[in-house]
Amino acid sequence: MTPSIAEILRGAAHGPLTLDDADAERLVDAARAAGGTIAVLDGPDSKAALLEAFADGFSFPDWGRNWDALEELLRGDPAGGWIEVVLWRDPERLARADPDAWATACDILVEVMGDRRRVGTPPIVVILTGRQPAAAPVESSMSESKHPAPDHTHRLPGKIRQLGRVHHVALIVRDIDESLAFWRDTLGLPVDAVMHMEQDRSTIAFLPVGESKVELVMPTDDTTGVARFLANKGEGFHHVCFEVDDIAETLTRLSMDGIELIDSAPRKGGEGPVAFLHPKSCHGVLVELIEAPGGPAWTSLGF
Prior knowledge:
Strand order of the largest sheet: 6-7-8-5-9-12-11-10
Oligomer: single chain
Mean pLDDT: 81
Strand content: 15-25%
Number of domains: 2
Order of helices and strands: HEHEHHEHHEHEHEEEHEHEEEH
Shape: elongated
Helix content: 25-40%
Radius of gyration: 22 Å
CATH architecture of the largest domain: Roll
CATH topology of the largest domain: 2,3-Dihydroxybiphenyl 1,2-Dioxygenase, domain 1
Largest sheet: 8 strands, mixed
CATH superfamily of the largest domain: 2,3-Dihydroxybiphenyl 1,2-Dioxygenase, domain 1
CATH class of the largest domain: Alpha Beta
């Protein structure tokens, strides 16, 4: 069954949608026709232009146009009790021209999207089109720059920017029992759990090592990506997994930073809510995120 426009937009509350112009306009028109409120940010290149665009789409408080007013506006009940949509064209312009304004706007949107999702109020959906900002550049230690990229990490919420522990390192294996004979019996690692993951068509085992774990993954269906990995590359390293406090907010921030996501929203994993980042954005490494026990996605996914 094809999802409705409303269902698509409500699902996008877990993170921004990156669309081409035609698809973006189609969704915006549908949201507007259904009574939604739209703010169009037409490539703003300054804080003032950004706030003016929000003011044109939504109704700002009478007492000013500033970051506090924007946050108060977005945290309020949506007009008409339905969805609010932010169509942001060419967000790269603001990221390049005013990195501080870009970082602050992203912080506010991330926090508001997460808060609305947690309390169950109608969502705010962010649609990005046109040129997207890249992740913050990493400058070579062999070169000097007259204009080094500003470091905003000190002013970002820790639950979004900072990763927790390495939860596990995953290895692809042909036979779970033969692999356990080495990792458990020869090396002496304890086995925390062995699980048959029907949705992923694989069998996995977790073996704790200090505060982290080794995950063994055996495909049980030859048509899966894990099975193709095994057939093409053989046994060995597959991905690294980091623990985060709030996986949905982390995915939103990473997407706004230009990181390509495999999962735009958390899904059920063997040990909690998980999501994967594409190796293209991680220097060739498949990266998994898992939410720490007790996080908001544990309840929403029915753990």
